[in-house]
């Protein structure tokens, strides 16, 4: 929707100005009137910052501006605090609109406020901005609305967003060294193929010696990349486009996320993180009095892994048939034995919420420990790979040199 710069008078007669998002100038005036303002001027502008001279590029820049996790955490904390103090949602959104500095988040808040005033629910209003608020965020808001425990849900949502931000930061830090090793591996490959190996090709040809297998393989790679590099780029580009299109489909997401869960070192981290999210959100839903069937619907959209979400759909079908939760969970490969055991004990003792909270705390610790060890595990593997590639090219070059030296010695 476009943005409009406005000037207006408030109920006390004081002048006010700002920027509002609306479908038209008339709609902007209506929204201002609903907020208690008397519009004196409404002019369309290019973006939420009110600078009208930027045109399309300025508007595109504002819309593409990234929402930092810190901005989202601060917004959620402020919203929780105001709702806890008994301030109405619309008034809270107006305060947050004036305090928020990020243009994209500011525009989203304005749109959400307008939607709520028009009779929309909070969760649906938030869901209209998927680039700002994730499925997890919107579904948690929905859970709070259904259960009437919005402030409690926001409290847990703050923890989840902060915790996942920390986990992602730790994973990024843990992967820094392995990424450097991989880059070094790729650079070493191309340097040896295009700069080192050609220096010896003529020498080996003139000597008339029989080239060993490593050398013939390297020469074949060099010849193929030298003469058909454009085909290689076209194939790689085509594969990238095909992969991007496939993972946009539901089946593609399931296959991709299932593959990630089966990776040797990263897979256990992803699975433990999913278990921690599942247990923490399910505990909140249980405490809020939401039925298991409704919880499965919400968890499907919040788990963050399409493979596990597909298991939730199958679980819901079995639950509709009147079966318990622990039994169907045993048929799902994506759930760990410990999680199934904790839920089984929770069902048998009638203390599901406490068991889920214990499981969430356990897997939070497991994720932190696994991330701290991930760099130690990946480092030696990648170093071994780098050593293997460099060693292969070294054999490709030095084996013919050794044979050449032996032939020269025989000639003497």
Structural class based on helices, strands and sheet pairing: mainly alpha
Order of helices and strands: EEHEHHHHHHHHHHHHHHH
Question: What is the alpha-carbon Rg in Å?
Answer: 30 Å
Mean pLDDT: 79
Overall shape: it is extended
Strand content: 5-15%
Write out key terms for the chains shown.
412 residues, mainly alpha, 16 helices, three-stranded antiparallel sheet, 5% strand
How is this structure best described in words?
This protein is 75% helix and 5% strand. Mean pLDDT is 79; it is low at 52-64. It is built from 16 helices and 3 strands. The protein is mainly alpha-helical. It is extended, with a radius of gyration of 30 Å. The chain starts with a strand and ends with a helix.
Layout of secondary structure:
Layout: E1 3-9, E2 15-21, H1 25-34, E3 38-45, H2 55-64, H3 69-84, H4 89-99, H5 103-117, H6 122-127, H7 135-147, H8 150-207, H9 213-246, H10 250-261, H11 266-287, H12 292-302, H13 306-320, H14 326-329, H15 337-349, H16 352-411
Antiparallel strand pairs: 1-2, 1-3
What's the quick description here?
This protein is mostly helical.
